[in-house]
Design goal:
Length: 143
């Protein structure tokens, strides 16, 4: 049951859904979970459950005329500890962006502080606390 790879895959699914602007899929990852944000322009934001999480990301992520976010979320320094049917994780993130008007650059960095639950044979997000402590040019990334 203590499969670090499954949790890393969950982190990757989060990054892919966010970069692909698939907010409904992102919400599914938090069907029983909570997202909170500390720092940056969305400081204090909180969403609980699939619909609310999807709506939060849909309301804060800027998309171009084709519906793309033009970002890549990179997750590093992953550390996970396990308990019976739960796990605690922390990692760093960096977000790059390139648009027609913005040269390729890092637009934000910070940390994820996560908890996970093992439910029906799968690891799920219980909480994701996003600490955005390095902010660059978010003019084309966040609303």
């Amino acid at each position: 049951m203590h499969d670090r790879g499954d949790i890393e895959n969950l982190m990757a699914l989060y990054a892919e859904a966010l970069d692909d602007a698939r907010f409904a899929d992102l919400g599914v990852l938090f069907a029983q979970g909570v997202v909170s944000i500390e720092g940056g322009p969305q400081d204090g934001s909180l969403a609980r459950g699939e619909t609310a999480v999807a709506a939060l990301y849909s309301s804060i992520v800027a998309l171009d005329d084709t519906g793309r976010a033009n970002t890549r979320h990179f997750i590093t320094n992953i550390f996970v500890t396990f308990d019976e049917s739960s796990a605690v994780g922390r990692s760093y993130f960096a977000v790059s962006q390139q648009t027609a008007d913005l040269a390729l650059q890092i637009v934000a960095c910070g940390a994820y502080h996560d908890t996970y639950q093992h439910v029906a044979g799968q690891w799920r997000f219980a909480t994701r606390h996003i600490v955005c402590d390095q902010v660059g040019n978010l003019s084309q990334h966040m609303l």
